[in-house]
Amino acid sequence: MLRIAVPNKGSLSGPASAMLHEAGYQQRKESKELVLVDPENEVEFFYLRPRDIAIYVSSGKLDIGITGRDLLLDSGANAEEILQLGFARSTFRYAAKPGTADGPADFRGMTIATSYEGVVAKHLADQGIEASVVHLDGAVETAIELGVAQVIADVVETGTSLRNAGLEIVGEPILTSEAVVIRRTGADAENHQVQQFLRRLQGVLVARSYVMMDYDCRVEHLEKAVALTPGLESPTISPLHHEGWVAVRSMVEAKEAQRIMDDLYALGARAILTTAIHACRL
Ligand SMILES: Nc1ncnc2c1ncn2[C@@H]1O[C@H](COP(=O)(O)OP(=O)(O)OP(=O)(O)O)[C@@H](O)[C@H]1O
Ligand SMILES: O=P(O)(O)OC[C@H]1O[C@H](OP(=O)(O)OP(=O)(O)O)[C@H](O)[C@@H]1O
Ligand SMILES: [Mg+2]
């Protein structure tokens, strides 16, 4: 049975469970459930604090886990990313009151508040900056107003939290993060169950970002049309009863679909349809 760690709270929890559900796995119905066995898929899910997941996975007690790249790096655990999942995207950045610092070099002697001590201590050490780091569990933006620190290092998505606290970003992003699947570093890459699990999640990622496009076009326009819709492998071309016309079927990126439909129409293609993909194995 494959043993998988899933975030039980916070920004990662809902989207992770939704993705697993979309991939055909059973998911817990109550947020208090800590373990769920899915016998049909031979998988056991452990709902754990996102911050603890890399530690469980690196210990070898669980085969794989879903967590944030920033949490993985902060933990220092012996685990590695094997798939990027595209949700809980964020950057991790320094921020301070305007006029405090132009860049990290100005942090010398200052105190930096963060929930990600591991990441911050390493970043400062790599740059040779001596500053104090104070650990806070959350709502780090308030630390400056309350005089606990002059600088914070925190997760930034829209920047709303920083703006509301009257803070501005200092320097370049320390890292960019998203939800990732992790396994213990050096674990058997060929493990059949893990490979199957990853293929299912990859199927969800493709189904979410691609649509199937069908259209009819004149044979003499086919080359140009196919250049617009090359597909992942190659488009399917079928003859039409109407001579001189073919039907084309190809996967296209959902965010490009409307532009491609306009371009195909301008080329003379007609009956241009897109349909959602519900599941897929590439
Ligand atoms: N506003 C956000 N937008 C996108 N990703 C976020 C956001 N806040 C946190 N994350 C990401 O979620 C993960 C942190 O999960 P965690 O559950 O610890 O934090 P949280 O969502 O802030 O919940 P909590 O309220 O428990 O602090 C990290 O990978 C982080 O980058
Ligand atoms: O740039 P934004 O879109 O504002 O998002 C970033 C904020 O979201 C998270 O906070 P959360 O609400 O989880 O509270 P926390 O600080 O207690 O973790 C994160 O810690 C930032 O504070
Ligand atoms: Mg948070």
TrEMBL record:
Its cofactor is Mg(2+). Coiled coil: none annotated. GO terms for molecular function: ATP phosphoribosyltransferase activity. InterPro entries: ATP-PRT_HisG_long, ATP_PRibTrfase_cat, ATP_PRibTrfase_HisG, HisG_C, N-reg_PII-like_a/b, N-reg_PII/ATP_PRibTrfase_C. CDD domains: PBP2_HisGL1. Its EC number is 2.4.2.17. Gene3D superfamilies: 3.30.70.120, Periplasmic binding protein-like II. This is ATP phosphoribosyltransferase. It comes from Streptomyces chengmaiensis. The gene is hisG.
